[in-house]
Amino acid sequence: MPDDLLSQGVLSQKEIDDLISSLSAGEDAMPAKPKAAPEELDKIVKVYDFKRALRFSKDQIRSLTRIYENYARLLATLFSAHLRTYAHISVVSSGQVPYGEYIRSIDGMTFLNVIEIPPLKGRKIMEVQPDIAYAMLDRILGGRGTGMNKISHLTDIEMKLLTNLFTKSLGPLQEAWSSITEIEPKLSEIEVNPQFLQAVSPNESVVVISMHAVIGDTSGTINIVIPHVVLEPVIFKLTAQYWMESGTKERKPEAVEALKNNIKDAHVEVSAELGKTDLTIRDFLSLVTGDVFQLQKRIDEPLTVNVAGVPKFLGQPGMRHNHLAVQILNMIEEGDEEDEW
Predict the structure, then answer these.
(1) Which of 105, 186, 272, 280 has the smallest number of Cβ neighbours within 10 A?
(2) C-beta of residue 116 within 8 angstroms of C-beta of residue 186
(3) Report field, pTM of the whole predicted structure over 0.70
(4) How far apart are CA 218 and CA 318, in angstroms?
(5) How many structural domains are present in the chain?
(6) What is the per-residue pLDDT across 40-51, written as a single tens digit (0 to 9) for each?
(7) Residues 32, 17: Cα–Cα separation, whole Å
(8) Domain of 25?
């Protein structure tokens, strides 16, 4: 073959035969592109599981965690008072998973408290492990608080006692949520078989907040499950920016007026001081009925009127409708008391 044809890129017979063979074998005739290094692929491709769609940001989950840390403290105080034993509850973890995955991860039998929280839509779940539930029940019935991982044979009385206790836990929940929104939680049902409970669709994202609970000598886990549909109306409040902005917002005039009215209705202790004197311990212990000692105040000097233990007014003693009374003369300005000395 002439050299001038080779210089123009004409294929040799061997190269033509190889190309025809690759085409007949179904292979790509175009030269393969160089493969990217594994570290380059990590920068370009990101794995995304549509079954585990992340609908909550880390900031929002942290805000929910703070809410339920407060709820855990309130709940521990409530259980300590009603069960008359040591109770400690603390948040240990929080995250988001599909609802179906959460249901598959829990035991076949457990206590699932289904709670409605109007005006928010949907329902949240409070899962109480059997050991903790039975320890509570044992304390209610006068026992030591021994846990027992068996709930297949609960009597109507036992279920009623637990329902009453779990209903009391809604008060602390309402208080913990008051910084975000006003809710009116109510316990709609208690389910013991998770397969019979379909709160949301299996692929719906839920926030799971796990709390470690200690009741007497028994320990276990309490899980809080909140679907996305419940938090959707207040999701914008679960950010650090909202917390910072709400802390700097000016109070509305009607809120300030309501605060003033509440302060005006507050009760304070008012006392009139006739005078003071100094006594030794010996003289004080020897005092008997009829003894007289001199006060460090003249009879014509005004009395000091204390408000909540703080000198605020000067007054003079007298009678009003056959009752001892004090007439206010003037207000003690700041520094007057020191000037008198």
Answers:
(1) 280
(2) yes
(3) no
(4) 65
(5) 3
(6) 555 566 665 555
(7) 19
(8) 1-31
SS3 314: strand
Judgement on whether residues 143 and 193 belong to the same structural domain of the protein: yes
pLDDT at 11 over 80: no
Residue predicted with more confidence, 246 or 281: 281
pLDDT at 338: 44
Q: In this structure, is residue 182 part of a structural domain?
A: yes
What is the three-class DSSP state of 211? Answer: strand
Q: Give the C-alpha separation, 85 to 140, whole Å.
A: 10
Could you tell me if residue 264 is inside a domain? no
CA distance 165 to 128: 12
Which three-class secondary structure state does DSSP give residue 313?
strand
Judgement on whether residues 169 and 315 belong to the same structural domain of the protein: no
Q: Are 273 and 301 in contact (CB under 8 A)?
A: no
Per-chain mean pLDDT for the chain = 80
Q: How many whole angstroms separate alpha carbon 315 and alpha carbon 126?
A: 61
Give the residue with greater pLDDT, 266 vs 150: 266
- Residue 279 contacts by C-beta under 8 Å, 6 or more apart in sequence? 293
Q: Which element (helix H / strand E) includes 89?
A: strand 87-98
| 72 shares its domain with 215 | yes
Instruction: Tell me the CA distances in angstroms from 25 to 32, 162, 219, one per residue in order.
Output: 16, 72, 67
Residues 334 and 282 in one domain: yes
**Which residues are CB-contacts of 330 (< 8 A; sequence separation ≥ 6)?**
313, 314
Q: 107 and 226 share a domain?
A: yes
Q: Do 197 and 95 share a structural domain? A: yes
Q: Are residues 298 and 215 both part of a single domain?
A: no
The phi-psi region of residue 173 (left if phi > 0; otherwise alpha if psi is between -120 and 50; otherwise beta) is alpha
| Segment 202-239, tens digit of pLDDT | 888 889 999 999 988 888 899 999 988 888 888 888 87
Q: What is the predicted pLDDT for the residue at 39?
A: 58
In a domain, 258, yes or no: no
